[in-house]
TrEMBL record:
GO terms for MF: catalytic activity
Organism: Actinotalea fermentans
Domain of life according to the entry: Bacteria
SUPFAM superfamilies: HIT-like
Name of one Pfam family that matches: HIT
Positions of short motif Histidine triad motif: 108-112
Protein name per UniProt: Histidine triad nucleotide-binding protein
Catalytic residues (UniProt): H110 (tele-amp-histidine intermediate)
Length: 124
C-alpha cells in the first residue's frame, strides 16, 4: 500500500456504516465529494446545515487520520469549508467527536459541519 505502514487501516470495513455509504451500499443524501472525500447530510440534523464529511478510506477517528494521512484530513477540512460556503453563510462549526464518551457513535472519522443558524457557545 503506497504511503502506509499497513493496508488494513484503509480497506473498506464491511460492518462500517460510513464505508457502506461511501461504497453506495447504504443510501445517503450526498452533497459534494472528490476522489478522496464525501459529504452527505446527517440523518438527524441538529441545525439547518448539518453535513458529515468523511474520507473514502476508513480511519477510526480524527487522531488516527491525522497520524496516518494528514493531507486527507486537510481534504476533509477543505470540503467542509466548501459546503459551508455553498449551503450556509460561510460560518460553521466543524466537530470531530472522538471516543464513545465524547459521543462518537460511528468509528469512521467524520467531521460534523454545523451551521445555518446562530451557534451558541458556553464554556459551562
Ligand atoms: P457521531 O455521534 O459518531 O459523532 O456522529 C454520527 C452521526 O451519524 C450522528 O449525527 C447520526 O445522526 C448520523 N447517522 C447515523 N446513522 C446515519 C445514517 O444511516 N445516515 C446518515 N446520513 N447519518 C447517520
Ligand atoms: Zn469505515
Amino acid at each position: 500500500y503506497p504511503g502506509g505502514m499497513s493496508s488494513a487501516e484503509n480497506l473498506a470495513v464491511p460492518d462500517c456504516l460510513f464505508c457502506r455509504i461511501v461504497a453506495g451500499q447504504v443510501p445517503a443524501d450526498l452533497v459534494a465529494g472528490t476522489d478522496r472525500v464525501v459529504a452527505f447530510r446527517d440523518i438527524n440534523p441538529q441545525a439547518p446545515l448539518h453535513v458529515l464529511v468523511v474520507p473514502r478510506d476508513h480511519h477510526a477517528d480524527v487522531a488516527q487520520l491525522a497520524a496516518v494521512d494528514p493531507g486527507l484530513l486537510a481534504d476533509v477540512v477543505a470540503l467542509a469549508h466548501e459546503v459551508a460556503q455553498t449551503e450556509a453563510d460561510g460560518a460553521y462549526r466543524l466537530v470531530f467527536n472522538t471516543g464513545a464518551e465524547a459521543g462518537q457513535s460511528v468509528f469512521h472519522v467524520h467531521g460534523h459541519v454545523i451551521g445555518g443558524r446562530r451557534l451558541g457557545w458556553s464554556p459551562a
